[in-house]
Amino acid sequence: MSDAAQTHKALVAGFFGRAAASYDRTGPHAFEYFGRRLVERAQIPGGARVLDVATGRGAVLFPAAAHVGPQGYVVGIDVAAPMVQLTAAEIRQRGVTNAEVRQMDAEHLAFPEVRFDWVLCGFGLMFFPDLPRALAEFRRVVRRGGRVAVTSRGEEDAPVQRFNALVRASGFDIRLGVHALQTPAALNEVLRQAGLTDIQVTGEEVDFVYADEEAWWAMMRSGGPGASLERMPSETLARFKADVFAMLQAFKQSDGLHYSRRVLYAMAAAPG
Questions:
Q1: Is the predicted pLDDT of residue 109 greater than 90, yes or no?
Q2: CATH T-level assignment (fold) for domain 3-155+177-208+261-269
Q3: Closest CA relative to residue 74, chosen from 121, 25, 125, 22
Q4: What's the whole-model pTM score?
């Protein structure tokens, strides 16, 4: 592994570890919604063995565990130790007996071959420095004829585009995502190159409403953009936040701030 790849992994693990306590814990819980939708679209049968890569706070893991039932089993993995610790605690708190979570690198899965019937990954592909290696690992651990199901971000809405422009102008632009998979063609191509077959990519656009600017800001700060925000000196961050709040006024509606999230779902098969 190159030094650059190792440095990037440490950057991703460090940021999401620090963000774990607030990750998708405020507002309309968008990741929880899309995790449930990924599991619904995958139509995983009861009793299946499932690997959830980049499990985070369990947005995919918990609905997958409910879907496969007591005869099935779900293993979630994440590179960020605090994510793993908090999700493990929530598994115990909820009394879920058919799921566990482990700290692990998606590019180096510590599982034997053909261990799982399904591999799921919600919004994780963009962060893997060596994406072909990660997808090769997906193929290695899924059984022949097994399935892979992933989500990827589509194009961002206008407020997020303007937010990103402000970040770039600030000089503190830290990019955690290293792969642009925002179109069906791009997502299809990386899965095809990984040797997966029967690839189907569909999209969904959902309008989430945040109560006010603070709620919208909290959502952005606990996600990938937060890596840039935490690098800003306090005075710079205060000015940047004021600029963001001013920008958001153009998008504010009577019920709050709307965030139109465009998401791609891809289903694929491992060769039989």
A1: yes
A2: Rossmann fold (3.40.50)
A3: 121
A4: 0.95
